[in-house]
Specification:
The complex is a heterodimer of chains A (about 375) and B (about 100). Chain A is an alpha/beta fold. Chain A has a nine-stranded mixed sheet. Chain A is globular. Chain B is an alpha+beta fold and about 100 residues long. In chain B, helix 2 packs across helix 3. The chains are: A alpha/beta (about 375), B alpha+beta (about 100). At the A-B interface, loops of A face loops of B.
Chain lengths: ~375, ~100
């Protein structure tokens, strides 16, 4: 197989985060601070990434600003020649730190938005005062002219505020707005009933984004990730497994996507033991679902095979129990009824409280107690 | 707003957008927020003339002279290319 060089790398610098969003993309088993790679190792990983063709580096977490060395890491990334993007909640980005990041050559900031007002945003993020601080950070970013994308993670509880969300992106001077409907992995799966949008919300969102895109042409660019449970076809996860991007976790484990560790039969390698190049080209986990040869019959006979590559492996595993199956979001999947059933059940179920990231056991414990009572 | 540039408009690459050598794949690539676009020879020829001071008309005239091609044809290509970048906020314009 002709394996192309990777274009983008997501560096999950830490799993630590002051927020506790119930849809966090981090795994449900979070890594501890003492297991994180140190500054010099990350710097070496950035150089290796640039050497094998990575152009875009996303410094993420957790909250990347929770790393005391975030400025040094940014400088190391730029020195390696990488386009450097900070994916942040904004918490921890003081004006002084923003100045230092700017001086270190940070190219762009992607700021998350949990909701359009403090009540909603702080409830979703599980962090009181977070919204107000985020707005201060957004203004400080604007003052400095650092290119900004607002990443609005959307779900049942905030999709009705989509129009206000778009206005806010313009007010905050963002060039780009990601309307990212929650993907159901990890924490979001635990909170699926709470987060699942209705079909009506989904249809409204598509219309609102299309109208805003036309109205704000040249002012704000949009990236829209619709809720895939309502789609006819699955998303091409990562643009195809092991084809464009890779993900490094806080302890140096290299993954084909952020949720890949949920696939139990795969083993993942670590930058502490092998080079990034060897892991990308020869690693078993990367080769497991590369290309199209492994795809099931449903996909092999489909004219969209090279468009969506069978969809998301983690979703196939989570819903069908087989990471090698067609993503059941696809209407052609023999197991598509599973997705339909989940959507219908979510519509009729009462949404209980969120299980916040990092607080799973505590919350589940409390829920069990209240059931016993 | 319309994305089409007027003849006097002076396009520029805004902060956070730059053209670099792709030392692994070869050629040049446009780097922008969370996006990398491989440039073909035409893209490189256009963007190398986007200085922030040259107007659209000057860029088109320069390209037409360099490649000995009709200005109308060049204008169409340049306009299409620049409108695509503008829609994604990868290109700014000063009057």
């Amino acid at each position: 197989m002709n394996v192309l060089p990777p274009i983008a790398m997501l560096a999950e610098l830490t799993h630590r985060c002051p927020l506790a969003c119930p849809y966090c993309s981090n795994p449900t088993e979070l890594q501890a601070a003492q297991d994180e790679l140190d500054t010099e190792t990350w710097a070496d990983v950035f150089r290796q990434a640039a050497d094998i063709g990575v152009l875009q580096l996303h410094l993420s977490g957790g909250e990347p600003a929770s790393r005391r060395d975030i400025v040094e890491l940014t400088a190391a990334a730029r020195a390696a020649g990488l386009y450097t993007n900070l994916i942040t909640s904004g918490i921890g980005l003081t004006p002084r730190r923003l100045d230092a990041l700017e001086a270190a050559g940070l190219d762009h900031i992607q700021l998350s938005l949990q909701g359009t007002n403090a009540d909603l945003a702080d409830w979703i993020g599980g962090y009181k005062g977070g919204f107000e601080r985020k707005m201060q950070v957004a203004h400080a970013i604007r003052e400095r002219g650092i290119p900004l994308t607002l990443n609005a993670v959307m779900h049942r509880h905030n999709l009705d505020d989509l129009e206000r969300t778009i206005e806010m992106a313009v007010e905050l001077g963002a060039r780009r707005l990601e309307v990212a409907c929650v993907q159901f992995h990890g924490w979001a799966t635990i909170n699926r009933v709470q987060l699942m949008p209705t079909r009506e919300q989904t249809e409204d969102a598509k219309r609102i984004v299309a109208e805003a895109e036309a109205r704000l042409r040249g002012v704000l660019a949009f990236d829209f990730v619709p809720p895939d449970y309502y789609s006819d076809f699955p998303k091409a996860c990562m643009g195809g497994w092991g084809s464009a991007g890779l993900n490094v976790t806080p302890n140096g484990t290299v993954l084909p996507c952020h949720a890949a560790e949920t696939i139990p039969h795969l083993t993942f390698e670590n930058v502490r033991h092998r080079t990034l190049s060897e892991i990308w080209y020869d690693g078993d986990a990367f080769n497991a679902y590369r290309g199209t040869d492994w795809l099931p019959e449903t996909c092999q006979t489909c004219d969209r095979m090279e468009i969506d590559f069978g969809g998301c492996r983690c979703q196939a595993l989570a819903l069908v129990g087989d990471a090698g199956a067609t993503d059941p979001v696809c209407r052609k999947s023999p197991q598509h009824f599973i997705v339909r059933d989940i959507v219908e059940a979510a519509a009729s179920e009462d949404a209980s409280d969120f299980v916040y990231r990092g607080k799973e056991l505590e919350r589940l414990g409390r829920r069990c107690q209240s059931k016993q009572a | 707003m319309t994305l089409a540039l007027a003849a006097d408009d002076r396009p520029y690459l805004p902060r956070g957008v730059r053209v670099v050598e792709d030392r692994v794949r070869g050629g040049k690539v446009l780097l922008a927020p969370e996006k990398a676009i491989a440039l073909d020879a035409i893209g490189v020829a256009i963007l190398s003339r986007v200085t922030g001071t040259a107007s659209l008309a000057e860029i088109v005239a320069d390209l037409a002279a360099t490649y000995d091609a009709p200005e109308a044809q060049i204008l169409e290509d340049v306009q299409r290319f620049m409108m695509g970048l503008r829609a994604r906020m990868f290109l700014g314009v000063r009057p």
